[in-house]
């Protein structure tokens, strides 16, 4: 299937972490605020409005992956959740210019846009992958990763160095090893959490030459040849992947 090829070869970072060392990140869900820890005078949040074609945009806290997404999430359910006007059936981007039938959430809003891929891309059944590509996006992973996070901050969150492919080629910025850090995938985890790296948008001024690794090699966040890479390299893609029937 074309989609499975996208997941397994073109997007190496999206393979389930339990299977390969080049695993996507494993998320540690932030603990919910319990009633005992809540401020005594806190005002209860208003109930969310009922879903309609013009349903209000979800709060920032709701823009989290994997969140409520699951393999059985359907376009109809997405319409109920986000409103029909915010769910568009169309082409979603693959590797090397390829496109696949899928779903685009909030297609006209780069702060909330997300691309959804399915095991059966003709019937749009079996949600396989949710990708976020817009740098200004407010989507986050439940392990704390967010778009635009500097590599240095990511390493601090992981607690160990991070290995990745050099930038500026088809698979540039793919993370290949968290070295057993906090962002590494758990062995029993079926839902994948992934991030890819790119260059900081430096206000059109560009990045000083030689400050970041380039090309098909594998590099480490603590490489002494690139002492400043932690501030120039940032997260440029987030995704959550879900198991298909063959993966369960």
Brief overview, please?
This protein is an alpha+beta fold and 248 residues long. The chain has 4 helices and 11 strands; from the N terminus they run αβαβββββαββββαβ. Helix content is 12%, strand content 24%.
How many helices does DSSP assign? 4
Count of separate structural domains: 1
Total strands: 11
N→C terminal distance: 17 Å
Keywords:
single chain; 248 residues; alpha+beta; six-stranded antiparallel beta sheet; three-stranded antiparallel beta sheet; 11 strands; 12% helix; globular; disordered N terminus
Describe the structure.
With 248 residues, the protein is α+β, with helices and mostly antiparallel strands. It has one domain (2-26, 53-247). Helices cover 12% and strands 24% of the residues. The chain contains 4 helices and 11 strands. The chain has helices at residues 2-10, 75-82, 151-158, 229-232; strands spanning 64-65, 87-93, 99-105, 114-120, 125-132, 140-141, 163-165, 175-177, 192-199, 218-220, 233-241. The strands form 3 sheets. Strands 2-3-4-5-11-9 form a 6-stranded antiparallel beta sheet. A 3-stranded antiparallel beta sheet has the order 8-7-10, with no helix packed on it. It is globular. The two termini are 17 Å apart. 34% of the residues are buried.
Which helices and strands occur, and which strands form pairs?
Layout: H1 2-10, E1 64-65, H2 75-82, E2 87-93, E3 99-105, E4 114-120, E5 125-132, E6 140-141, H3 151-158, E7 163-165, E8 175-177, E9 192-199, E10 218-220, H4 229-232, E11 233-241
Parallel strand pairs: 1-6
Antiparallel strand pairs: 2-3, 3-4, 4-5, 5-11, 7-8, 7-10, 9-11
